[in-house]
Amino acid sequence: MRSVGDKAVFAVQSVFVFTVFAGLTVLLAAVQSSRDERRFESAMLRTLGASRKVVLQGVLAEFTVLGLLSGACLRRWAHRLRGICRERGCSRVPYGLFVVVALGLIGGGRAGGL
Hints:
Layout: H1 4-33, H2 35-47, H3 52-87, H4 96-112
Helix pairs in contact: 3-4
């Protein structure tokens, strides 16, 4: 039988997973909606003489920064969640999930730019 603290951790984890999936869905929708604008900007840069490599590096840099900012926000909220769980006496706080999601956001941001 699980303790009340373990049940609370499970509930928070479940809400967190659903929130992450919803956030990823919104991120993908935002990336797709700005796709035409990125194509136009890329075409303009190419017309002005930029190489394909330079345009690709710019897009990768943009999405890397977005991914890093998302990861930083995730880390901050994970730290807050950890503090709340420790305050309330939860016995375990999973870090692996937060690391995987942060890396997924960074990788997803970079892949979205391709």
